[in-house]
Amino acid sequence: MKIGVLALQGAFREHIEALHRLGVETVEVRLPEQLEGLDGLIIPGGESTAIGKLAVKYGLQEAIRRYAEMGKPVYGTCAGMILLSKDAGREQPLLGMMNVKVERNAFGRQLDSFETELDIPALGKEPFPGIFIRAPKIESVGDGVEVVAALPDGTPVAARQENMLVTAFHPELTDDLRFHKYFLSMVDTRGEGSGVRDQSVMLR
Ligand code: GLN
Fold this sequence. Notes:
By secondary structure, this protein is an alpha/beta fold. The protein has helices spanning about 10-20, 50-55, 60-70, 80-85, 180-185, and strands at about 1-5, 25-30, 40-45, 75, 85, 100-105, 115-120, 130-135, 135-140, 145-150, 155-160, 165. The structure holds glutamine.
């Protein structure tokens, strides 16, 4: 299995390390042709405006859209979630593929960064350490979007739409590899079709 990590800006090294700990081969993606042959793609956290502008500049905006439209699994953390969203509440280059509306930097100044235990049923009973860094909020979800995790007040912080997965928090900054394993479970290792229902990679 070979997973690409968009390496234009932001926390891409941490995702690569998490994937290596799971024994997965990785590719740093900076050019459209580097998407070829990848079983999945991670769009890291960072600054969504910067990543979006660079993606447009290097032809990656269109290339990633085509890649996701083929049904290939794509996972966006934080800024990556903003980029995958259809609506970020302001003008900025987006991939605009997922039926969610997000609000950038939504947790207020005093809560710019915080850590909280998340109950994520798809990962089992153990709470997951949610690290939020100037995180966006998912304001609303549209058709075909399943909420994977929410804060106690009901605010969704992880969601999935077919082959696309997003989190407002940063699993790559923890030692807990369960969320990356969950993403890998969406990857079709047989190289056919979308593979979104392929459970050949076990979660625990
Ligand atoms: N605040 C950033 C943005 O709006 C996202 C922060 C992050 O990715 N940790 O793009």
